[in-house]
Design brief:
The chain is mainly α. The chain has a single domain, classed as Cobalamin adenosyltransferase-like (Hypothetical Protein Ta1238, Chain: A). About 55% of the residues lie in helices and about 5% in strands. The chain has a two-stranded antiparallel ribbon with strand order 1-2. A hairpin with a 5-residue loop joins strand 1 and strand 2. Helix 1 runs antiparallel to helix 4. The mean pLDDT is about 90.
């Protein structure tokens, strides 16, 4: 269990940070970069949650708010996963890792919300509604977190479910952007070369 009594420790003043296994690495190294991007993603979803709280509490916005809270909790699991190097030795406590069941749930949500969306014949521009615009920002941060995690996986062994989770999550966020744009009715389509005349 996490217990935070003191907020500053001075141990990171030299530019290093502690991982959950007790080791220390530079703050700019791949592992803190990956879980730092996940933390940023989580914070951006907090803005989406707040934005949905300001609207009339219809059933859909409440449903999506609840889903965002679940995702935020998963993202803390993911941060714990990424901050814990895979060890060959026996560990005192089993590390918290993203599981396939969490990915399966994202896939079910994608299928559920995508059912009522029309197919796209163009990319869409971020926008349409305030909530959708904020969620597009979260989607792009999720993609960055995925790239950072992919880089980490090229340098060290990681739980590959963490990378898959981020990939599915960014897909789900894209679908939810369209749902929050009145099931795509307020989507703004990209028109290639529009301003080249």
């Amino acid at each position: 269990m996490v217990k935070l009594n003191k907020i500053y420790t001075r141990t990171g003043d030299d530019g290093s940070t502690g991982l959950t296994d007790g080791s220390r690495v530079p703050k700019h190294s791949s592992r803190p970069q990956a879980y730092g991007s996940v933390d940023e993603l989580n914070s951006s979803l907090g803005l989406v949650y707040f934005c949905l709280s300001k609207k009339d509490a219809n059933a859909l916005s409440v449903e999506i708010k609840d889903l965002i809270r679940e995702i935020q909790n998963d993202l803390f699991d993911l941060g714990a996963d990424l901050s814990t190097p895979i060890s060959k030795g026996k560990q005192k406590y089993p590390p918290l890792r993203i599981k396939k069941s969490q990915i399966d749930k994202l896939e079910r949500k994608i299928d559920h919300y995508n059912e009522n969306l029309s197919a796209l014949d163009s990319f869409i521009l971020p926008g349409g509604s305030e909530a959708s615009s904020l969620l597009h920002l979260s989607r792009t941060i999720a993609r960055r977190a995925e790239r950072d995690t992919s880089l980490l996986s090229s340098e060290e062994k990681i739980n590959m479910e963490s990378l898959t989770y981020l990939n599915r999550l960014s897909d789900l966020l894209f679908v939810l952007c369209r749902v929050l744009n009145e099931n795509g009715l307020k989507d703004i389509l990209w028109i290639p070369g529009l301003n080249q005349k």
